[in-house]
Design goal:
Blueprint: H1 2-9, H2 13-68, H3 72-84, E1 88-95, E2 100-105, E3 115-125, E4 128-139, H4 142-193, H5 208-260, E5 265-269, E6 275-278, H6 280-286, H7 300-309, H8 320-332, E7 338-342, E8 345-353, E9 359-365, H9 367-378, H10 380-389, E10 393-398, H11 400-411, H12 417-423, H13 425-429, H14 431-434, E11 436-440, H15 442-447, H16 453-462, H17 469-480, E12 485-493, E13 499-508, E14 518-524, H18 526-547, E15 552-557, E16 562-565, H19 567-572, E17 582-583, H20 585-590, H21 594-608, E18 615-622, E19 628-639, E20 645-654, H22 656-679, H23 685-692, E21 702-715, H24 717-723, H25 726-746, E22 750-755, E23 758-763, H26 771-798, E24 806-822, E25 827-832, H27 834-845, E26 851-854, H28 855-861, E27 865-873, E28 882-890, H29 891-894, E29 901-904, E30 909-912, H30 919-938
Parallel strand pairs: 24-26
Antiparallel strand pairs: 1-2, 1-4, 3-4, 5-6, 5-9, 7-8, 8-9, 10-11, 10-14, 12-13, 13-14, 15-16, 15-20, 16-17, 18-19, 19-20, 21-23, 21-24, 22-23, 24-25, 26-28, 27-28, 29-30
Helix pairs in contact: 2-3, 2-4, 4-5, 5-18, 7-8, 9-10, 25-26
């Protein structure tokens, strides 16, 4: 039991929170003290090394006199004095032959020590320096190690105290802000789960927990309302079911009357393959003598098995089970029309699947066509006579070109032609160009509206074939399987522009392996198909009515000027169930909101005039209670042969809730846009754009880049701040930072941060023009800032400031690390590295109202900006002196007379800055140029 309690305790929010916080605090503490210890060790090492360098330099100079005079005792005294220093581990003096003269401490092993230095001992005799020996000194790092141990102990104590404080604070805060409201929330949830009354959670706060509790309480209130609405909706649904049942009964009777009037057999089976309805032609044509067995509700398998057992199907005599299985396969997976032999009759079966999984079929008697084909096979003479006089369009074609293409395809390794055709329809569409038309009968010429056979041949040869690619594919696949004929229903275009629906039948000759003799017949069933399409439309409308419980249906009969509407629309308009099932167009338009009526009528006009394929519009419609609801109106028009619209039908969907959601979404989007604009104030524009455009991810990552870094601050700002009131100081400081930031952004800078009165800026990331261009842009920006500061000085003096602010700036170009630094919860996009430190040191060493740049920056800008060398200066934290230049101004601002002369060819380079030359420098330069001119003239 104790183990289970322990396991459960680790699953609490408090335990999970501590499991996250404690490692994070430890990691942060270790990282902070690690950085501190790294800097402390580095500074101590630098100080000790500096001491060693100075000590060996000074002592080598001191010993020079004694070593020259061979004063060994004096040398020993000097070494003894060195040994007094606790940091000196050993020292040794060697003569010019590198022989030991004297030593102290661990002189034998000091060369292997980390802090070891040697210096030549130079004696100057008559101004001639002479090396007379060398001095070697090593320092011990014992003091550094002792100091490091003390710091580690102190760091451990501070880390422990910090960890305990953070954990206690986190536990108390977690309990007060999360634990209590969650316990109350769980109590309310358990009460609801046990079937008791809903109990609101008593907790109010402005944080996320408070929002969750408020949402939970609101959800409970909504659930009560929903339960009440559900009870009311159930009663209404029962009434609607009764009304729809009556409507469906009437629609079904209309459908039955329609299918009884057609000449073909018709049947409809549901998704369980049970007969729903059929016409008498279906029973008499397919099941004569057993009509009483073909009744609704009978499975399809039972009907066909009963017919096979009664001997109505000749092909089922050998094996009824095999025939039934094959027929069921075709019925459940229809792939186009197929033929059945029923005694002396040939029946074409055209089946297709409905949306709900059922099967609808049309059965046509094609016995006359099949008899004609049989007679054609019996005698060539009779075939020719029939060919020329048959009322059915007939072709004699040569498909040997297609057969050769298929054989080449198989020789290339293609075994599954059906899948290959599906993946390469362009291969199949080329079949029409491989067919050779040998002859056509007069019925074909008449069917296609041609003047004569040559006219039809030219049309078939020069016109793109109108058959879809799968028509040829089906025939070729059938011929390849060994079948000798295949019938398909296709839509064909005639020469005179008509579209006709034909039964397209391809028949091979006596030899099924020879495709050079193919007979094609085209039976025009356009009128029959139109009637069938009307029947299918009626069936589709019936199916749509079955599924249309969520949408209102309307049918506008323009001849009667009535719009027939479904019960859903009547409910939407607040009409009674006993009201008429139609409404006039004027009455409908009167219910449309005045602001939406013009848009609706324009969409309707565009569709009626053929400008749009469908009539689609959104508008508000008034109900009985005088309230408006948004609807989506979709419809399509039907036209007669003269192009006059006589009917229009469609549906109406209630989209009020969607419109409400769209308005809420627009409000939230506006709020997020405002919030985004406010957050942008805390980021540099380049960084903001790179993040919001997706170019840069917000994660802890950095990279090394060569940047130009700018530091500036105000000279004497602390003393000025003491003399000004806080309001005046804030105004002046904000004015200064605003002016400088505007100049920086105008020059494409990335503003890193403001540190009090200091500004940190860099060029080269996230956008760069190149290292040279970035450096020029940075120095140009600094010149503009200096100019603006002089203007601000006058403004501040006139406003009463006795000592106006003055600015100094430092610039360096170098490799830096740039990226996101911090934690996953709070990070800063900034730069670090030696290049950044050097820029900061240059700014500290810069005089007021001046710009100090490093040599690398100068090398990039010297062609466009005039600078003056300030020599090498020692900077804090820099191990070597740094060459600096003071920025004067852009050459273009100095005038023609002050521009330097620069010229460069393959073997000559000339660079002269007269403004920096003394009179002596000018005379020497003139002499050198004169000598160069004479030398070039003599050559």
């Amino acid at each position: 039991m104790a183990d289970r309690s322990t396991i459960l305790s680790f699953n609490t929010i408090r335990a999970k929170f501590l499991a996250f916080v404690v490692p994070l605090v430890l990691l942060s503490t270790v990282l902070m003290f690690g950085l501190f210890e790294f800097n402390a060790r580095r500074d101590a090492n630098l100080k000790l090394q500096d001491k060693l360098d100075k000590l060996v330099t000074i002592q080598s100079a001191v010993i020079a006199e004694s070593l020259w005079n061979v004063a060994d005792e004096q040398i020993k005294l000097i070494l003894a004095a060195l040994a007094i220093d606790p940091d000196v581990e050993g020292a040794a003096v060697y003569n010019e032959l590198d022989k030991l003269v004297g030593s102290t401490g661990a002189s034998e092993e000091m060369a292997s020590r980390p802090f070891y230095a040697t210096k030549e001992i130079v004696y100057i005799d008559d101004d001639q320096p002479e090396v007379i020996g060398r001095l070697a000194i090593s320092l011990t790092d014992a003091g550094l190690k002792a100091a490091a141990q003390e710091r580690m102990v102190l760091a451990g104590v501070l880390a422990a105290v910090l960890l305990v404080a953070v954990v206690l604070s986190a536990m108390i805060g977690n309990r007060r802000t999360i634990g209590i409201p969650l316990e109350r929330l769980l109590v309310s949830i358990n009460l609801s789960r046990e079937g008791e009354k809903h109990q609101a959670v008593d907790w109010r706060s402005n944080d996320e927990i408070g929002a969750v509790v408020a949402a939970f309480n609101e959800t409970q209130e909504r659930q009560k309302a929903y339960e009440q609405e559900l009870m009311e909706a159930r009663d209404m649904l029962e009434r609607r079911v009764e009304e729809r049942t009556r409507d469906l009964d009437r629609a079904q009777q209309i459908l039955i009357d329609a299918i009884e009037s057609i000449s073909e057999g018709f049947s409809l089976y549901d998704h369980d393959d049970r007969l729903v309805l059929c016409n008498s032609r279906y029973r008499n044509l397919l099941y004569p003598g057993i009509e009483d067995a073909v009744v609704p509700g009978t499975p399809f398998e039972s009907i066909i098995r009963h017919a096979a057992e009664r001997g109505l199907i000749e092909s089922a005599d050998e094996s009824i089970d095999e025939w039934v299985a094959e027929r069921l396969q075709k019925h459940r997976e229809p792939r186009g029309p197929h033929l059945q032999r029923r005694g002396e009759m040939w029946i074409q079966v055209s089946e297709r699947k409905t949306d709900d999984g059922g099967t609808v079929a049309i059965y046509a008697d094609l016995t006359s066509i099949k008899d004609s084909e049989q007679e054609l096979r019996d005698s060539k003479e009779r075939f020719r006579d029939l060919f020329e006089n048959a009322p059915i369009a007939m072709f004699e074609e040569d498909w040997s070109g297609i057969q050769r293409a298929i054989e080449r395809l198989k020789s290339e390794g293609v075994t599954d032609l059906e899948n290959y055709f599906a993946d390469h329809p362009e291969f199949v569409t080329n079949f029409s160009k491989l067919v050779q038309w040998r002859d056509f009968n007069p019925a074909t010429v008449q069917l296609y509206g041609a003047e004569d056979k040559p006219c039809l041949r030219e049309h078939l040869t020069n016109t793109e074939d109108s058959y879809s690619w799968d028509v040829y594919a089906n025939v070729v696949l059938a011929f390849d399987r060994g079948e000798r004929h295949l019938s398909q229903e296709v839509v064909e275009s005639t020469i005179d522009g008509r579209e006709i629906i034909i039964i397209f039948t391809c028949q091979l000759g006596e030899n099924a392996s020879d495709w050079s003799s193919v007979t094609t017949t085209s039976l025009d069933i356009t009128e029959r198909r139109k009637f069938q399409m009307a029947l299918e439309e009626s069936e589709e409308r019936y199916s749509l009515s079955m599924r249309g419980s969520n949408e209102g249906l309307w049918d506008w009969d323009k001849r009667q000027n009535k719009i027939f509407i479904s019960s859903h629309i009547k409910t939407l308009l607040g009409m009674e169930s006993t009201d008429h099932d139609y409404i006039t167009p004027d009455a409908w338009e009167a219910r449309i909101h005045p602001e939406d009526l013009g848009r609706h009528l324009e969409a309707q006009r565009a569709h009626l005039e053929g400008e749009t394929e469908f009539n689609i519009s959104e508008y508000r419609v008034r109900g009985k209670d005088e309230t408006y609801r948004w609807v989506l109106d979709r419809g399509a028009a039907l036209k007669d042969r003269d192009g006059v619209v006589y009917r229009m039908a469609g549906s109406v969907s209630d989209i009020t809730e969607r419109k409400r959601a769209e308005r809420e979404l627009a409000t939230k989007s506006s709020y997020l846009e405002q919030l985004s604009n406010q957050l942008a104030k805390y980021l540099s524009p380049q960084v903001y754009q790179s993040i919001f455009s997706g170019k840069q991810e917000v994660k802890l990552v950095s990279q090394r880049k060569r940047l130009t870094v700018f530091f500036s601050d105000l000279v004497g700002f602390t003393s000025t701040a003491e003399r000004l009131e806080s309001e005046d100081l804030t105004r002046v400081l904000n004015q200064y930072l605003t002016e400088m930031s505007q100049i920086a952004l105008e020059h494409g800078a990335t503003i890193d941060k403001y540190i009090g009165d200091a500004i940190v800026i860099f060029f080269g990331d996230p956008e760069t023009l190149g290292v040279k261009e970035d450096a020029i842009a940075c120095v140009t920006m600094a010149i503009a800032m200096r100019k603006r500061m002089k203007e601000l000085e006058r403004v501040w003096i006139e406003s009463g400031m006795e000592n106006p602010l003055q600015c100094r700036m430092g610039i360096n170009t170098g490799v830096c690390t740039v990226g996101n630094f911090g934690s996953e919860d709070r990070m800063d996009y900034t730069i670090i590295g030696g290049g950044v430190n050097l820029a900061a040191r240059l700014e500290t060493a810069c005089p007021a109202n001046e710009i100090l740049i490093s040599y690398e920056t100068y090398a990039h800008v010297k062609d466009q900006i005039k600078c003056q060398e300030e020599g090498q200066i020692e900077l804090k934290g820099m191990s070597h002196p740094v060459t600096t230049h003071r920025v004067i101004d852009l050459f273009e601002n100095l005038g023609e007379g002050k521009l330097p002369i620069r010229s460069k060819t393959t073997h000559m380079r000339l660079e002269v800055d007269v403004n920096l030359m003394t009179p002596e420098d000018k005379r020497e330069a003139a002499a050198m140029l004169k000598e160069a001119v004479e030398l070039l003239s003599n050559r």
